[in-house]
């Protein structure tokens, strides 16, 4: 499996218990949505991706705990600490119109209505009220609310977001 075919959804925080369960830090809107996928891909220490079969899972206060069919031992589970977890992009549902996966926005060039480049999307923040683009330019970083008042167009094919945002904001 190639990196381009996968979407990273979190990472293994460590072992949970003695029967091969692992703690998962999910980087998804709804952490338990990972339970919908029967096959997970974990990036091994050598950089290769390996498939694991989801067997069972539970929601804990600060993390998910997951049991994979292939892992029955705490030592093996602990050795998985830090491994990234990914799902094949082809398995993800198509987002509704005007909604995007964050992973698809990161790295896009951001320009304003005057076609001035403000930078590239470094990350997104969830504030509760709305998501915020973290845009890094050559000399500064801007936080732009990801709402229709400021987002004019998102063109994934052109790898560009057009915003209604001045240089002096």
UniProtKB/TrEMBL annotation:
The keyword Transport does not apply. Its main location: cytoplasm. It is found in: Cytoplasm. Residues 9-90 form the RimM N-terminal domain. It comes from the Bacteria. Residues 102-165 form the Ribosome maturation factor RimM PRC barrel domain. Keywords: Chaperone, Cytoplasm, Ribosome biogenesis, rRNA processing. The PRC barrel domain binds ribosomal protein uS19. An accessory protein needed during the final step in the assembly of 30S ribosomal subunit, possibly for assembly of the head region. Essential for efficient processing of 16S rRNA. May be needed both before and after RbfA during the maturation of 16S rRNA. It has affinity for free ribosomal 30S subunits but not for 70S ribosomes. HAMAP family: Ribosome_mat_RimM. Belongs to the RimM family. Binds ribosomal protein uS19. This is Ribosome maturation factor RimM. It comes from Vogesella amnigena.
């Amino acid at each position: 499996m190639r990196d381009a075919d996968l979407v990273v959804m979190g990472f293994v925080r460590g072992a949970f218990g003695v029967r091969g369960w692992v703690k998962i830090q999910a980087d998804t809107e709804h952490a338990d949505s990972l339970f919908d996928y029967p096959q997970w891909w974990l990036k091994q220490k050598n950089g290769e991706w390996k498939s694991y079969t989801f067997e069972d899972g539970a929601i804990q206060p600060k993390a998910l705990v997951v049991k994979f069919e292939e892992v029955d031992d705490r030592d093996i589970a602990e050795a998985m600490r830090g491994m990234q977890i990914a799902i094949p992009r082809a398995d993800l549902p198509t987002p509704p119109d005007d909604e995007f996966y964050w992973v698809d926005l990161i790295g896009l060039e951001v320009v304003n209505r005057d076609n001035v480049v403000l930078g590239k999307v470094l990350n997104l923040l969830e504030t509760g009220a709305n998501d915020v683009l973290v845009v890094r330019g050559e000399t500064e970083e801007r936080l732009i609310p990801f709402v229709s008042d400021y987002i004019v167009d998102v063109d994934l094919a052109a790898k560009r977001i057009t915003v209604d945002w001045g240089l002096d904001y």
